[in-house]
Amino acid sequence: MKKALFGLFVLTLVISGCGYGFRNGQNNLPPDVHSIAVPVFANNTAEVRIETIFTDAVIAQFTRSQIVRIVPEGEADAVLRATLVGISLTDVSLTTAESSRQRRITIYVNAKLVRVRDGKVLWKENKLRQNRTYLITGSNVSDEGSKRMAITELAADLAETLHDRVFENF
């Protein structure tokens, strides 16, 4: 009976866990980097106010992994700077009337991690891209909501990719 209860307890912990697991647990950052600042992304796209969505997603991803501390820029060992450099929208599915049924949004980002004490670039990647497809209904309000939801999901995907690449030094 005790083994069954213990097994149920372990199963409950597994099921209720957040599901996040850093692949390989790898951290190739220099040993003196214990904290990172993530300033608000620069936004060079025509899409207004998406920089905070992406910044918040990256901060959440780094906080969740607990590999390094996220701190204000003045207290950080390194700073992760990113710029949203491009956005594209492409119709991927059309109705019989040749209007869009599904659209793909693609975001392009330049990012780099710089050590504060000496300005050394520890990691850098240009034109990192993520995309997401969303449905088009023909209603401007609904379509804008679908696009915003796709951007939020895309930001979470990009945050995970940035996180993994920073620590794996790809």
From TrEMBL:
InterPro entries: LPS_assembly_LptE
Organism: Desulfarculus baarsii (strain ATCC 33931 / DSM 2075 / LMG 7858 / VKM B-1802 / 2st14)
Taxonomy of the source species: Bacteria, Pseudomonadati, Thermodesulfobacteriota, Desulfarculia, Desulfarculales
GO BP, sorted A to Z: Gram-negative-bacterium-type cell outer membrane assembly
GO cellular component: outer membrane
Stated name of the protein: Lipoprotein
